[in-house]
Amino acid sequence: MTLIRPTAVAGLFYPEDPQALKTMVGKLLAAVPPTKERNHPLALIAPHAGYVYSGAVAASGYRLLEGLHNQIRRVIIIGPAHRVAFLGMAIPTVDIFETPLGPMTVDQQLLARLDDLPQIRRDNAPHAPEHSLEVQLPFLLETLGDQVSIAPIVVGSTAPKAVAEVLRRIWTEPDTLLIISTDLTHFLDHDTATRIDAMTSEAIVRMEDHRIRPEHACGHIPLQGFLQVARERGMKGEILDLRNSGDTAGPRESVVGYGAYVFH
């Protein structure tokens, strides 16, 4: 029997209607200015708020995936837990993540490489309500199609080095893309958020994980773990977009920061 993880935030973070969602994602991607030709992306860092707030920033990363459906076969998506508190990192036992645009197959063969690690737990509960991974899926379907498989990992209370160990185990083939899902500062005034997010972005592209604090990014643990591995591999990072909800959705007293980054 096929096990399915239903959508949790369709109709909340993004449209539930398939045509409305497809149209919205298409417009967000089309609005990204043309960029110079780059090498095949190995990793993206993307935000995970509602599309009204962070969709335009996320699109600047996903636009780079267009035309790469023959080169990318699987996508590891790793992000922080927002709803369920737990120790370690959770991988699902389900076969499918449902989306309004169709199903995405979970690469259980890839995830099985992690089953002997102490920080890994097989647990669908943290995945069931989690939005940090789900909001990435419509962008993946629109850019890479439904032939790519996904390896979803939700990070609870653990250390960045535990994340790095997981990535060294499964992020090994050139046809495997890694997506780190994180927002930046939360609920600061616009000017303060802009200043701190700029410093965090500098630390990200320089792969200086020690400079990133919990208050700088809600996904700081997976982000720091990724940066450790990226530095080991001599990768190069680039800022694609850096804005906050005051920039994307209009002025407000407090904002949430969003950044998009690519690594080769």
Structure, described:
It contains eight helices and twelve strands. The chain has a single domain, classed as LigB-like (Protocatechuate 4,5-dioxygenase, Chain B). The strands form two sheets. Strands 2, 3, 4, 7, 8, 9, 10, 11 and 12 form a nine-stranded mixed sheet that branches. Strands 1-5-6 form a three-stranded mixed sheet, with no helix packed on it. Helix 5 packs across helix 7 (220-232). It has 264 residues and is an alpha/beta fold. The longest helix is centred in the last third of the chain and has 16 residues, at 190-205. Helices cover 31% and strands 21% of the residues. It is globular, with a radius of gyration of 17 Å.
SSE layout and pairing:
Elements (H helix, E strand, L loop, with lengths): L3 E2 L12 H13 L12 E4 L4 H12 L11 E7 L8 E3 L4 E2 L6 E2 L2 H4 L8 E3 L14 H8 L4 E7 L4 H11 L5 E6 L4 E3 L1 H16 L14 H13 L4 E8 H4 L6 E9 L1
Parallel strand pairs: 1-5, 2-9, 3-8, 3-9, 4-7
Antiparallel strand pairs: 2-12, 4-8, 5-6, 10-12, 11-12
Helix pairs in contact: 5-7
Main sheet makeup:
9 strands, mixed
Uncertain regions spanning at least 5 consecutive residues: none
**What Rg, in angstroms, do the CA atoms define?**
17 Å
**The CATH class:** Alpha Beta
* CATH architecture classification: 3-Layer(aba) Sandwich
CATH homologous superfamily - what is it?
A: LigB-like
Quaternary: single chain
Number of strands: 12
CATH topology: Protocatechuate 4,5-dioxygenase, Chain B
Return the domain count.
1
Written as H for each helix and E for each strand, in order along the chain, the element string is EHEHEEEEHEHEHEEHHEHE
Quote the distance from N terminus to C terminus: 39 Å
Helix content: 25-40%
Class by alpha and beta content: alpha/beta
The average pLDDT value, as a whole number, equals 97
**How many individual helices?**
8
Q: Strand content of the residues, in percent?
A: 15-25%
Outline type? globular
